[in-house]
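#struct-help
A.M.: can someone run this one for me? Single chain, 169 residues.
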Amino acid sequence: MNNPALRGVERVIAFVAGGLKWSLIGATAIMVGCIALQVVMRYVFGRTPSWTEELAVLMFSWSVMGGLALGVREGFHVRLDAVINLAPPGGRAWAERAIEALTAAFGFYLAWSGARFLDMTGGSVSAAIGYPIEMLHALAPVAGALIGLFASWRMLTGSPAEPSPELAP
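D.P.: on it. Structure tokens below:
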């Protein structure tokens, strides 16, 4: 990328992706810690805290939704390679961009429909911890927006949908 504006946008997107990675690492660690605590409390002390399962579910939900977005950014998401393989040699780039466009459309639809669901369910609290249920329901629109952002960027820049080197076999 020779354009300074595009390099700046790429830096912002890379920063967002880096924050996403760290949030997923944190969510996974919290989830595993909650599950471990729940198992120890159940089998050693015969009493399980009511909040561990609920917090683990919240962290699992973010791990899945955020992981979808990171998969789009890093190129390890599920793709329609069959469509790309069927494309004639000159149409492969077009097929790649079409798949990225469909992925972006899915992401933006998830953001829109998730925001609508969030609006409909606002005001509730979780049963055990009592956190605003909007924290759980906001995961879909946030992940959808990230999916849409990452796929749109890949589509516009023609970034190949290949895993980053640390994820390659």
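A.M.: thanks! The chain has a mean pLDDT of 89.
D.P.: also worth noting: Helices lie at 4-45, 51-74, 81-86, 92-120, 134-137, 139-157.
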